[in-house]
Amino acid sequence: MSPSRSASSAPAPSPAARRIIRLNNGFQLLFNLLWWMPVFYAYQRDAGLSDGQIFGIQSIYYIAFCLFEIPTGIVADRIGARNCLRAGAVVMTAANLLPVLAPTYTGFLAHFLAIAAGRSLTSGAASAYLYDGLRAERAGAHYLRAEGTARALGLGAKVVCWPLVGPLMALAPQTPYVLSAASAAGSLGCALVLPRLAGGGPGVRPRSPARPGAGFLRDTGAALRALRSSPWLALLMVQGVAVFTLSRICQVNLFQPVLLRHGIGEGAHGSVLAAMTVAEAVASARPQWLSRRVPPVVWVSLLSVALAAALAGTAVGGPWTVVALLCAFAAITGFVYPVQRKLVNDAVPANAPRATLLSVESIVDRAVCALAAVAAGAYLAAGRLDALLWHSAALTCLLMPALHLALHRAGRTRPPHGKGGTAAAAQPVPLPADEGAAPR
Q1: Where would you tag: which of 27, 197, 390, 419 has the fewest CB atoms within 10 A of its CB?
Q2: Among the three residues 174, 202, 230, which one is the final residue of a domain in this structure?
Q3: Number of compact structural domains in the chain
Q4: Is the whole model's pTM more than 0.85, yes or no?
Q5: CATH code: domain of residue 187
Q6: Residue 278 shares a structural domain with residue 375
Q7: Residues in Cβ contact with 158 at an 8 Å cutoff, skipping those fewer than 6 apart
Q8: Is the pLDDT of residue 23 over 60?
Q9: What is the pLDDT of residues 335-359, one digit of tens each?
């Protein structure tokens, strides 16, 4: 039975489950509504930072995210995801005000370090809270739809808000950061009224009164043992690196340099990013458009190569072609994320610390992004943006076939249910018929 059929045939969620879904929607929308995203590169340039400094900060950001992910994932598993969401919202609110108070290299560095801390506190905790909360309310069949709805609402808010960034900056350059702080404060309000799950929630584990640190080590060891016992899960995480790195580097780090390179001014950046967001939202809600005759793991590999090709194409097109390619890039990202995320979640072994494992995946993703950001800064400082785009595409096209072959071999030896895997992990994973993407 497909996920969509099971969701449609399940009973309607209880009032408590609907409340969890509504508050999760509000939290995800407000927490991730970064008004400054379309203009932060130009904002830092106007503040006097060089390309090397800007991309150096991005590399430090990814490294910091790696360092924060394991501790925060374990914290979510130990003390409850709800408390982590509250802490993350507080940190994010303060982080968005730092560029206003200190528009310097140090201020921007502190800003992104705080962003890394805030996002790492919520990256696994948000999905874990929703998953455990709906399961506790016997509404687990609605999880995928709830995740997709939250993502769609968040993308829709960005579509509405980002085109306003240019005019707002003309009134006051700091406005995008102030509005981002206000949005994060709103997410804190949602987190404060999230209901406490019965018993703290399935993801909360009791602390050891004698040795508090022993529990952290135990959870870390359990996550590492799960990866060692399931090469399939480890390789799926690595497969997602190409998707995450390409989408992150393009939509965050290279988006503005590419547009400026083709003569598209800062005032239009919000509108272009909004158009990309529409393309991603439509595609992320319609993974059933991908043929079911092709296994999901194959789709991830093929779409990763398509992402690289679209990114490389921006090196040769004119302004309108570049905008169209960026929208195509965003649409491909929307298609691939729900497929890749379902593959990983279904491959998590039974009784493994889910939030900690998702943190491990984020560490791998952002470690590669840290290296990519350093390389991007070096290429841009040398005036070789086009070479960076071509080399990224070539590297992806070389690595993906080798990784897919390793996945094919690992798929033959996946453990059956009860021997380190789950039933879902030991079988081909169907594409959802009408579900949205889970945020990464």
Answers
A1: 419
A2: 202
A3: 2
A4: no
A5: 1.20.1250.20
A6: yes
A7: 33, 37, 273, 274, 277
A8: yes
A9: 887 778 777 777 777 676 666 777 7
